Amino acid sequence: MQCAVFFCFFFVKLLLILKETTMTRPAHNNTVTVKYTGTLADGTVFDASPDDSPLIFIIGREEVIKGFEAALLEMSEGEKKIVVIEPDQAYGASNPDLVEEIQRAELPADLKLTAGEQLEVTQADGSILLLMVVKVTDETVTLDANHPLAGKALTFDIELLEVDTEPPKELPPFFAGALAAGPMR
Description:
Number of helices: 3
Radius of gyration: 24 Å
CATH architecture of the largest domain: Roll
Number of strands: 9
Distance between the termini: 57 Å
Structural class: alpha+beta
Shape: elongated
Oligomer: single chain
Low-confidence stretches: 174-185
Largest sheet: 5 strands, antiparallel
Strand content: 25-35%
């Protein structure tokens, strides 16, 4: 009887070890498929992958915020995890130099502004800058050029659905082999 219990325990432990070693963990240049929901400290959802369209991206290409990618590198295929990403690993600290109060007279008279909305501004080089309208008075408008999530800790509920370890398809074969080894040191 005692031998049977030991054998059963040994067998279960062996299965757990095999499961851990067969689960694929993402690495540099792997393509990952994830489902996620991002929330703020108060529970407000700021982003989520649609149920029928998970996020697909390549690790190491800076396609997502640093903390999100770092969390995935600690996960295995099929794993679910909730992580809190601090501002320095997300959109950075809010920079007070990017908040400015301007005179209302400097803006077109017919421009309707409401606090909490974004204002799209075309810069001299043709690029678009999105500004958050923070405050509106009869004389002034306060605009904020920080990313709307700057300075905020972000909570992500992540499910790593798939890890594709094959080099990305769009790279020529020479580069695919070189990049699969990771960055040069």
